[in-house]
Every structure is written in structure tokens, then in C-alpha cells.
Design a protein that fits this description.
The protein is α/β, with parallel strands linked by helices and 318 residues long. The chain has 2 domains: 3-168 and 212-238, 3-Layer(aba) Sandwich (Rossmann fold); 170-210 and 242-281 and 295-313, UDP-galactose 4-epimerase, domain 1 (Alpha-Beta Complex). The protein is built from 11 helices and 14 strands. It has helices at 14-23, 55-64, 78-83, 85-106, 139-158, 184-194, 213-225, 246-254, 268-276, 284-290, 298-312; strands spanning 3-7, 27-32, 47-49, 69-72, 109-111, 114-115, 161-163, 165-167, 169-171, 197-200, 208-212, 237-238, 242-244, 261-264. The relative contact order is 0.14. Bound molecules: serine. Residues 77-78, 115-117, 140, 167, 169, 180-182 line the site of serine.
């Protein structure tokens, strides 16, 4: 891994992965769709307009910058995908297979995140094993299962170095997520700082796996840097960090904002998806094969989230 292209650099993961990779000494081309403006903090290196669906243009960018590794972060998350199933399929399946074809031709390494969305109601939920039933009920999950299988197929059939992680809900303060079932765990922090109150679309007692963005970034980079001879799973590794329900995250916020109020207005679409997903994951394979270990606890994450959001909103830190 030397010359990297990040597709989706303006998004929730990409906007933080690009600087993380650059800080690690890699040469990184920040790729965006051109629909969203390039974040100003990514202007310290090369960039390109890349559309995952435009294979010729993508190949030209790969050749022009002598790219050897692509992080493909283009995705339509779970809730949005339910209203745009064809678009979700296009990005999540046609986009991924096009990139794998290019990877075969150009000998690229490829990272495409998978998700807890690959699991469904029949999957054991606590903890969810590495190798288990993957029968999701969402279009997002279906595309992620297909992406995992395609990535393994191109690896075993053509020797493509494709690797991935099943990300839990990712929590960050730099760029908002959009259209995900786990997004409440980001929104709650913004509303806590802004208003001291939050109306939650997910019911009390609903646990989902979650992770603070610095852990998620380190996981991606560590996996791509891992010695391939140690890996058995490739696509895709469970990675576990945090597991909480709305009361759990609210309790963590109240350590800093004691008057914080949590109420509920459950969204049936989101709640149905949340209930079909795991509470927590068994990530023994990731720990054994590439030494994965999360660093941040819920309270450590909460302290950083509240402090950084307060700065961004020009408020005194809690
Ligand atoms: N955060 C994603 C979602 O909620 C799950 O991978 O859709």
C-alpha cells in the first residue's frame, strides 16, 4: 500500500480516513463524487472527481495517480436504501463488482466496508459469531452480503487483494452520517449540546454494536496493512467495540450534562431494522488474525464528542 485512492472522501468515514492515511505517510488522492464540496481540510493533497459507477473514468484516475490501493466508501445506508433499492443495489453491488474488475486488471488492493447490516433476525444476536447466518431483511444488508461474497470470489478466483470489516454504527463529530439506522447515536450528542434534550427514534432496550471513529479508522488501516499470510477471513471481519441502548448513551451524557432529557418517538422502519441486527459481535477472528483491539470506552467517546461538538457550536464545553 503506497498510492491510495479514497472514494467517498467527503463522507462520514472518508473525511477522516484521508487525513489519517496522510498522517501515516501515505500518498492519498481524495476522491469525491463532485456533488458534495471537497472538505477544506482535505485540500493539503491531491484530489479527483470519481464516480464509482463510471468505470472508464475511474480507471483513468487509477492510472494517472499510479494507485495501488482503493478504499471504496461509497454507500447508501440502511434506512435510505429502503426507499431507493435500485440505487442501493447499483452502488453496493454493481459499483463493487466494477471496482473488483478494475482491481483484477490493475492489481489493486481494495477495501470496501461491510456492515452489521449483513445479519438478520435468525442470526444469534449476542454475541454474533464471525461465521454465521447472513440473511438480512434490508436492501442495504443484501448489497453488503453480495459485496462480501463478490470480494471473496475475486480473491479466490483471480487473486485480488480484497479485504473488509463489518462495521457497527460509527460515531463521529466531523461529518454527519446520513440515512443509517445507527445515526441516532450521533444525533443524540448534537441535540444534547444544542438543546439538552433528544427525541429518540429507537426504543429503550434496543442494543446495537457501535464504534468511535478513531477505532474504525485504525481498524481499516491495520487490516489493509496486515500480513496476508495471517488472514483467513478477508471478507469480512466482525469488529466489536461498544454495545449500548438509548438509555446507556443517555446515562453517559448525563455524567457531563445532568439535566439532559431523553424522550422517545419510535420510528417503525428504523426500529424494525435495529431489532434485526446484533447487540454485540464476537470479533475473535479479527483479534487473532490481525491483532484488532478497540481503544475507546463509551464514556471516553462521550467526553470527546461533547467537547468537540460544543466547540463547533460555539458553546462552553460540558
Ligand atoms: N451505520 C449503518 C446503518 O445504520 C450500519 O452499517 O445503516
Amino acid at each position: 500500500m503506497k498510492n491510495i485512492l479514497v472514494i467517498g472522501s467527503a463522507g462520514q468515514i472518508g473525511s477522516e480516513l484521508v487525513p489519517a492515511l496522510r498522517n501515516r505517510g501515505y500518498s492519498v488522492v481524495a476522491g469525491t463524487s463532485g456533488r458534495t464540496p471537497m472538505p477544506a481540510h482535505l485540500a493539503d493533497g491531491p484530489s479527483a472527481v470519481v464516480n464509482l459507477m463510471d468505470r472508464d473514468a475511474l480507471a483513468k484516475t487509477v492510472d494517472r495517480f499510479e494507485i495501488d490501493t482503493v478504499f471504496n466508501l461509497a454507500a447508501i445506508l440502511s434506512a435510505t436504501a429502503e426507499s431507493k433499492p435500485m440505487a442501493a443495489w447499483d452502488v453496493g453491488v454493481n459499483g463493487v463488482i466494477g471496482l473488483l474488475e478494475l482491481a483484477r486488471d490493475r492489481k489493486l488492493s481494495v477495501f470496501t466496508p461491510s456492515s452489521i447490516g449483513v445479519f438478520g433476525p435468525e442470526t444469534p444476536h449476542n454475541p454474533t459469531p464471525q461465521d454465521t447466518v447472513c440473511r438480512p431483511r434490508t436492501m442495504y444488508g443484501i448489497t453488503k452480503v453480495a459485496g462480501e461474497l463478490l470480494s471473496d470470489y475475486y480473491r479466490s478466483k483471480y487473486g485480488v487483494d480484497a479485504r473488509s470489516l463489518r462495521y457497527p454504527g460509527l460515531i463521529s463529530y466531523v461529518t454527519p452520517p446520513g440515512g443509517g439506522t445507527t445515526d441516532y447515536a450521533v444525533d443524540i450528542y448534537w441535540k444534547a449540546v444544542e438543546n439538552g434534550a433528544y427525541e429518540c427514534p429507537i426504543a429503550a432496550g434496543t442494543y446495537m454494536p457501535m464504534m468511535f471513529m478513531p477505532d474504525a479508522l485504525r481498524a481499516a488501516v491495520d487490516l489493509m496493512e496486515a500480513d496476508a499470510s495471517r488472514l483467513r477471513h478477508f471478507n469480512s471481519f466482525n469488529v466489536n467495540a461498544l454495545s449500548f441502548d438509548p438509555e446507556g448513551i443517555a446515562g453517559s451524557i448525563r455524567r457531563r450534562i445532568p439535566e439532559f432529557r431523553l424522550s422517545y418517538k419510535v420510528n417503525p422502519l428504523l426500529q424494525g431494522i435495529a431489532e434485526s441486527w446484533p447487540d454485540a459481535l464476537d470479533d475473535t477472528a479479527a483479534r487473532e488474525e490481525w491483532d484488532w483491539k478497540p481503544e475507546y470506552s463509551l464514556d471516553e467517546m462521550t467526553d470527546i464528542m461533547l467537547r468537540e461538538i460544543a466547540k463547533r457550536l460555539g458553546k462552553a464545553a460540558a
